[in-house]
Design brief:
This protein has 811 residues and is of the alpha+beta class. It is built from 19 helices and 44 strands. A hairpin with a 2-residue loop joins strand 41 and strand 42. The protein is globular, with a radius of gyration of 27 Å. Bound molecules: alpha-D-glucopyranose (2 copies). One alpha-D-glucopyranose binds next to loops.
Length: 811
């Protein structure tokens, strides 16, 4: 069942009922100021850091589920309603929400009044526009009241949700004309404030929540809108809010538009005050002046659209499969941008206070993002590398505002260092910017201890080879990619975090997955060293890699598939010998080792992938492990804490499905790769939205596996490495166009289900138009470049500004 449809020409998803199976959200904002907005107007916004600089309040996991947002109430002759349906839930005779790239437009109609709310963050600004358009579609004149409403968060979202004894006394606002200023803590150490403005004369305003809503009411029946009269309250302590009250008259057919602006301003400390106790509002007023008319707003929206059209033109496909087109051209890269911006911090499943930017996560997010804005990828790489320790290990997370490593989580995730190499190599392949390797980058953000980025990569590489276990496989540490395989944790005590508790400190538990990563990513490091003229270092690296490959085949192979790990006691994890009730096969090393090429020549790769098909594949995607762990295992940690079928315990963890897709292309089985692709790609499962439940335009982290009660039900939409890896899988491996060190590789491996397609790829300033006839899915190609046949699958990079025409016959 569907709850809307794609509108590809506008690059929008159109939701046609407010009653979706879960709030379906979108993201606003580009670089510094961000918002989340649901199809019902729910959500919140923040400046850079969802934990430390939150502007508006949102109530996670509340009743009803989507509580708090930017709401507009309309009172027409005593009938009060909200065009976003929520929070008043009055019946609408028309509802539509259009989620577009960086903007959302919700329209509701009732009693012949059409109300449209457009939300977006203009490029380069630290503000959200809420443009409300009211149209009288009836035959009689209308007189109504319009009330805006937002609730301020007292900046630090964690403190805001916990420290009431203080916070109920600190709230402060100023009201001047049609602008409400939120200045809690501005009197002391904060040099920033927020404001909410409307470009019209107000009939009244409110800034005190209790007065506006009523102590015993909710967002669905607030006092002021229902009574139709603002109370002109000035908050002092408790909960500051901002509401404008507007009187509106509309002749039949008449339309009026109001521009609301929710902004964030920082003042230099010396210029904080206009006079004692009064904020210096200069910067706010300058910002307001930029968005005080509909023309200005429309121009800004136009610019945002152009911006996205430009970004998306770097990789575009035309094929006969409209679902494929919309995933590759619009929604997958869009989600990649959002995961790049947010990492795993703020979504409807991540509270914005739990996690900052992940070392592992952000490096992987780069992979799907680097072709959009390489300069920002560069900056991000430097930020991430600056949190690395001198021994090559890394802080697992850092806060975006301070860019400092997060001590609560610390380090010890032994896959982390390798992801940095992968991120850097993706960046260099995209741009040819080898100069980044010479950048001086601190360790642990200490300016007195720095080295070149190249040296950072060396330490990443060595961190693995210096930390091997009894079988010569890499030690897993606290966990590898699978945060829930905690082999040194041994926790018997509730509330101990699985990721950071290490009750045993032995150097025995080993990861076959990290070994696979090392074999996959190690050669990238060797290539980089070679480019820097370090032939010996490259040779050394390759010999370490070759050794590891041998070790994997010797100690990491179980007969029909790759082992997952050895536990603290040296016992196998993910083996046919594991007892009943334990998992016998886990997905990660199957995909990753084959991606690395391990066992391709000798047959293990094919066997492993056939085992995946047989034991892990389901109608909704590939599960992480099988059978699921039935009981809690103290020696395995969190993986065995989840009920069977959810999350890392046999859920369909979408992030690793593309590794299997890519692996299938490595052994020349493009048709199977595409079959896997379609199982989890959101556009292909739009028709089962009632089962899937999360947004049909973005990937979710997890879909409940075959052992779960709700098989097929997704959770954790938006912020997941699934976005980047699926983009890598489809664009670089199935459609087969990827930047390599010395040229653009063109090697489609998707099969005859997509018999013909054209890809336009911009890379290093040149444009490649690639026309593909896809006859089979074996990954063998014949290429003609500008009419001339070439050997192999590598098209040399062309001069910036030029266009290269490529004909490709893929068999
Ligand atoms: C979450 C984490 C990611 C981890 C994955 C598997 O998505 O963000 O870092 O790799 O879970 O545990
Ligand atoms: C939990 C989740 C995992 C996530 C981790 C982050 O363990 O299962 O997916 O990566 O938390 O801390």
């Amino acid at each position: 069942m569907r709850f809307g449809h794609f509108d590809d020409s506008h690059k929008e998803y159109v939701i046609t009922t407010p009653k979706t199976p879960y709030p379906w959200i979108n993201y606003l904002g580009n670089e510094n100021f961000f918002g989340l907005v649901s199809h019902q107007g729910g959500g919140y916004c923040f400046y850079r850091d969802a934990r430390l600089r939150r502007l508006t309040r949102y109530r996670y996991n509340n009743v009803p589920t989507d509580s708090g947002g930017r709401y507009f109430y309309i009172n027409e002759g005593g009938d009060t309603w909200t065009p976003t349906f929520m929070p008043m839930k009055k019946e609408l005779d028309f509802f539509e929400c259009r989620h577009g790239l960086g903007y959302t437009k919700v329209t509701g109609r009732r009693n012949g009044l059409r109300a449209e709310v457009l939300y977006f963050v203009p490029l380069g600004e630290t503000a959200e526009v809420h443009q409300v358009t009211l149209k009288n579609e009836g035959t009689a004149a209308k007189k109504l009241k319009l009330f805006s409403f937002i609730e301020f968060c007292l900046w630090n979202a964690h403190d805001d949700a916990t420290n009431f004894q203080r916070n109920f006394s600190t709230g402060e606002v100023e009201v001047e004309g049609s602008t409400i200023y939120h200045k809690t803590e501005y009197r002391e150490r904060r040099d920033h404030f927020a404001f909410y403005h409307v470009n019209a004369t107000v009939a009244g305003f409110d800034t005190d929540r209790e007065s506006f809503i009523g102590l015993y009411n909710g967002f669905g029946d607030p006092d002021v809108p229902c009574a139709g009269e603002s109370k002109n309250t000035v908050a002092s302590g408790w909960s500051p809010v901002a509401s404008h009250g507007l009187d509106v008259t509309l002749a039949p057919g008449e339309e009026k538009t109001f521009v609301f602006l929710l902004g964030y301003v920082e003042n230099p400390r010396a210029e904080k005050w206009e006079k004692p106790g009064v904020i210096n509002k200069q910067r706010a007023k300058a910002l307001i002046a930029k968005f005080s008319s509909t023309e200005q707003v429309n121009a800004a929206l136009g610019k945002l659209r152009e911006h996205w059209n430009g970004l998306l033109s770097n990789y575009a496909i035309e094929s006969g499969d409209e679902k494929l087109n919309r995933m590759v051209n619009i929604w997958n890269p869009y989600q990649c941008m959002v995961t790049f911006n947010m990492s795993r911090s703020a979504s409807y499943f991540e509270s914005g206070i739990g996690r900052g930017m992940g070392f592992r996560d952000s490096n992987q997010d780069l992979l799907g993002f680097v072709h959009l804005v390489p300069e920002r990828a560069r900056e991000r790489i430097i930020d991430i590398a600056s949190t690395q320790f001198a021994d090559g290990s890394a802080y697992h997370q850092y806060q975006p505002l301070t860019k400092r490593g997060n001590n609560d989580v610390g380090s010890g995730f032994n896959d982390d260092p390798l992801w940095l190499i992968l991120g850097v190599s993706a960046y260099i392949k995209e741009t040819g910017d080898y100069g980044i390797l010479d950048e001086q980058v601190p360790f642990d953000n200490d300016p007195n201890n720095q080295a070149s980025l190249l040296e950072h990569l060396k330490r990443s590489f060595d961190h693995v080879s210096h930390n091997l276990g009894p079988h010569g496989l890499p030690l897993i540490g606290r966990a590898d990619w699978n945060d829930c395989l905690n082999l040194n944790c041994f926790s018997e005590t509730p509330d101990e975090p699985f990721q950071t508790t290490g009750n045993r400190t032995g150097r025995t538990a080993e990861s076959v997955f990290i070994a696979g990563m090392f074999v996959h990513i190690g050669p990238e490091y060797a290539k980089i060293a070679e480019y820097k003229g370090q032939a010996d270092e490259a040779k050394r690296a390759l010999s370490e890699v070759a050794k590891m490959e041998k070790t994997v085949l010797e100690h990491g192979w179980d007969g029909e598939w790759f082992l997952r790990a050895y536990d603290f006691f040296g016992k196998k994890i993910g083996s046919k010998d594991c007892p009943e009730g334990d998992s016998q096969i886990l997905i990660e090393p199957q995909g990753y080792c084959v991606m690395a090429g391990i066992g391709v020549a000798t047959g293990e790769a094919k066997k492993a992938l056939d085992s995946v098909k047989e034991r892990l594949d389901t109608r909704y995607g590939i599960v992480l492990n099988n059978p699921p762990y039935r009981d809690y295992h103290v020696e395995l940690g969190e993986i065995s804490s989840y009920p069977p079928g959810y999350k890392e315990n046999a859920g369909i963890f979408c992030h690793n499905n593309p590794w299997v897709m890519i692996a299938e292309t490595v052994i020349g089985r493009g048709e199977r790769a595409f079959e896997y692709y379609k199982k989890i790609a959101p556009a292909y499962i739009e028709d089962i939205s009632e089962i899937h439940r999360t947004e049909p335009y973005v990937y979710s982290q997890m879909i409940a596996g075959k052992d779960a009660v709700h098989h097929g039900e997704a959770k954790n939409s938006w912020l997941t490495g699934t976005a980047a890896w699926n983009f890598v899988a489809i664009s670089q491996h199935l459609l087969g166009v990827r930047p390599e060190w010395d040229g653009l590789c063109v090697k489609p491996c998707i099969g005859s289900e997509v018999p013909e397609f054209t890809i336009t790829r911009k890379c290093r300033g040149a444009t490649y138009r690639i026309h593909v006839k896809s006859l089979g899915g074996t990954g063998k190609v014949k290429l003609k470049v500008d009419g001339k046949a070439i050997e192999g699958d590598l098209v040399p990079y062309a001069k910036a500004g030029s266009t290269v025409n490529i004909e490709c016959e893929a068999s």
